[in-house]
TrEMBL record:
Species, as recorded: Dunaliella salina
Domain (Glycerol-3-phosphate dehydrogenase NAD-dependent C-terminal) ranges: 296-447
Listed Gene3D superfamilies: HAD superfamily/HAD-like (3.40.50.1000), N-(1-d-carboxylethyl)-l-norvaline Dehydrogenase, domain 2 (1.10.1040.10), NAD(P)-binding Rossmann-like Domain (3.40.50.720)
Keyword Oxidoreductase: yes
Name of the top EC class for this enzyme: oxidoreductase
Gene Ontology molecular-function annotations: glycerol-3-phosphate dehydrogenase (NAD+) activity; NAD binding; protein homodimerization activity
Source lineage: Eukaryota, Viridiplantae, Chlorophyta, core chlorophytes, Chlorophyceae
Domain Glycerol-3-phosphate dehydrogenase NAD-dependent N-terminal as annotated: residue spans: 101-274
Chemical reaction(s) catalysed: sn-glycerol 3-phosphate + NAD(+) = dihydroxyacetone phosphate + NADH + H(+)
GO biological process: carbohydrate metabolic process; glycerol-3-phosphate catabolic process
Name of the molecule in the record: Glycerol-3-phosphate dehydrogenase [NAD(+)]
Family indicated by similarity: Belongs to the NAD-dependent glycerol-3-phosphate dehydrogenase family.
Cellular component GO terms, alphabetical: cytosol
Source organism, top-level taxon: Eukaryota
Entry keyword set: NAD, Oxidoreductase
Length: 449
């Protein structure tokens, strides 16, 4: 007895054999199937056998979904003719199982920490003949030079990104490619982890090249949104609309360096299709990286976006030298405005989402350890010391080694929405942070908003 997730009758993923349900007599088979259904409600059940009672276990009410007739020992024509699939060997069965090809779009610190986990999972899965993943993972790298060499060449030789995640082995099964189209070509599972301001162009380029498989699935690790005249568009919505594929999101308290050191971390995968969520969970979950599944894509994604604004505010507070009580007030007000903004934009957002890793946990991690906090602290200190010309752009180049600062851009995008809809007074912290960024009010206004 084994279980697959199936699509249009074709077995695409072996879930596993279950040896805990005896089926040594005819009535044992329907009972075993019923127990398996209760234990795995989202999987289809496949019966493999060569006898009439095996066939009857499929045809009975509540029976298995697919019957594979095995003719490797005894071939019974009357049973084979009624089967969904006929095989003569176990190897035939394994060869027909689809394996997913995985591609990563992005090569910054978080992208490398994430693809490192993915490469570990696919390498381990390759040891099983029933693996559902191709062992090789491709990663698109925006080409640049490192020590006189192309960064892609260095990564492929040393299995490390020395620019954005130095010292972390990405795995020998990770292949870097500077060609976006070739990286994604033929991929079944596409992970997006590029700065959000570049995502629209990336999706348009992929759509024009027509390289995305029709049945492919995507997941976004990108934190941000696109502002349009008709309203904000989340990155997952952009991917789905432009590429025509399902897009889940992975969000949480995920500082890249901590995860690369395999420190205990967690995240949520929010999905529209639970089957897709379970598949992504298989790919990302590691002994040091726990995944919870959540049926709230807009809530999880907006939390991951808005927390960057709160982190900028927390960094400003740190630059002023405030104590823990004052900083806690900024975090509390920030989380409250995050929830309110999410509800205004998408009333279906669930309250319990804010208690997941993508909510309060991500706010805490970002406001104490993220790059938005760190740059905002330095900016505020320089301003308070009299340097009125220092800009966030300057500090991004000086401090982030080529990485992008998301909080300032996100603040501008959210402020555009607040002003367009007349919501500024309802979001005093978000509005004050944006005005401080643009020099309209002094930094200490963060304590009086």
């Amino acid at each position: 007895m084994l279980m697959f997730v199936c699509k249009q009758g074709q077995p695409i993923r072996l879930k596993g054999f279950d040896m805990n349900h005896p089926a040594t007599h005819a009535q044992g088979k329907p009972q075993a199937i019923a127990r398996i259904r209760r234990q795995y409600p989202y999987n289809n059940v496949v019966m493999i056998g060569d006898g009439i009672t095996d066939q009857e276990a499929v045809e009975a009410t509540g029976g298995a979904d697919i019957f594979i007739c095995y003719g490797g020992v005894v071939e019974r024509q009357n049973v084979a003719s009624r089967s969904d699939w006929f095989v003569r060997s176990y190897d035939d069965l394994m060869r027909c199982l689809k394996r997913y090809k995985v591609a990563m779009v992005g090569s910054g610190a978080w992208a490398c920490a994430a693809v490192r986990m993915v490469a570990q999972s696919t390498a381990e899965a390759a040891q099983s003949p029933a693996s559902c993943f191709e062992p090789e993972v491709t990663m698109w790298v925006h080409e640049e030079k490192h020590s006189g060499r192309n960064l892609t060449e260095y990564i492929n030789e040393h299995h490390e990104n020395p620019v954005y995640l130095p010292g972390a082995s990405l795995g020998e099964n990770l292949i870097a490619n500077n060609d976006l189209i070739e990286t994604v070509r033929g991929a079944d599972l596409i992970i997006f982890c590029a700065p959000h301001q570049f995502m629209h162009g990336i999706c348009k380029q992929l759509a024009a090249a027509k390289v995305v498989n029709r049945g492919a699935k995507a997941i976004s690790l990108t934190k941000g949104m696109r502002v349009r005249a008709e309203g904000p568009q989340l990155i997952s919505q952009m991917v789905s609309r432009i590429l025509g594929i399902d897009c889940s999101v992975l969000m949480g308290a995920n500082i890249a360096g901590d995860i690369a050191r395999e420190e205990l971390s967690e995240a949520v995968i929010a999905y529209t299709s639970r089957d897709a969520g379970v598949l992504w969970q298989q790919l990302f979950q590691r002994p040091y990286f726990a995944i919870n599944l959540l049926a709230d894509v807009p809530g999880a994604e907006m939390c991951g976006t808005l927390k960057n604004i709160v982190a900028v505010g927390a960094g400003m507070g740190d630059g002023l030298g405030i104590g823990p009580n004052s900083k806690a007030s900024i975090l509390r007000q920030g989380l409250s405005e995050m929830r309110q903004f999410c509800k205004y934009i998408s009333p279906s957002v669930r309250d319990d989402t804010f208690f997941e890793s993508c909510g309060v946990a991500d706010v805490i991690a970002s406001c104490y350890g993220g790059r938005n906090r760190r740059v905002a602290e330095a900016w505020c200190q320089r301003r308070m010391a009299g340097d009125q010309l220092v800009s966030f752009d300057d500090l991004e180049k000086e401090m982030l080694n080529g990485q992008k600062l998301q909080g300032v851009l996100t603040s501008d995008e959210v402020q555009e929405i607040l002003e367009a809809r007349g919501w500024e007074l309802n979001f005093p912290l978000f509005t004050t942070i944006n005005r401080i960024i643009h020099g309209e009010v002094p930094p200490d206004m963060i304590l009086r908003c």
